[in-house]
Amino acid sequence: MGDLYADLCGALKLERVTRRKAMGMTIAVIGIAVLASENGVSAHSPSVLGDAITMTGSIGFAMYVVLGNGVAGRYDPLTMTAFSHYAGALMVLPVAIYRP
What does R_g of the chain's alpha carbons equal in angstroms? Predict the structure, then answer.
């Protein structure tokens, strides 16, 4: 079991995945599972939505770091920040427009 960041880095050959990194992430994931199951796991738990939002943010940041490594050297920080904000706005736009 590994970390998304380590998996992406390994797949894209940006960073070497070591046994120590994999073990550290495995321990972290087990710790999260233990803490999440402290009061029982239920799909109707009030924290499920918050957990899903947090996980989505973590996955997004991991992808940004890994995929941004390849282009960060070619662009200045202002351009990288602007691109990140525009891309994020486009991803959130359908949710922002939709009103139930």
Answer: 17
